[in-house]
Amino acid sequence: MPAKYGLPSDPDYSLRLAEFEARIGRGEKIEPGDWMPEEYRRQLIRMISQHAHSEVVGMLPEGAWINRAPTLKRKMILIAKVQDEAGHGQYLYHAAETLGVSREAMLEALLSGKAKYSSIFNYPTLTWADIGTIGWLVDGAAIKNQTMLAAGSYGPYSRAMVRICAEEAFHHKQGKEMVLFYARGSEKQRQMAQDAINRWWWPALMMMGPHDADSPNSEVLTRWGIKTKSNDTVRQEFINEHAPEILDAGLQVPDPDLHQDDKGNWVHGPINWDEFWQVVGGNGPMNKERLEARRKAHDEGAWVRSALETYAAKLQKATVAV
Amino acid sequence: MRNEIKQALIARLTALADDEVILSHRNSEWTGHAPILEEDIALANIAQDELGHASVWYSLRKELDGSDPDGLVFFRDADEFRNCELVELPRGDWAFTMLRQFLFDLNETLWLQQARDSSYQPLADAANKILREERFHLQHTQAWVERLGLGTEESNRRMQNALDFMWGYTQQLFVPIPGEDLLVAEGIVPDLGGLKTRWLEYSIQHLQNSGLKLPINPGYQPASRTHHTEHLWSILAEMQSTARWDAAARVW
Question: How many domains does chain B have?
Answer without folding.
Answer: 1
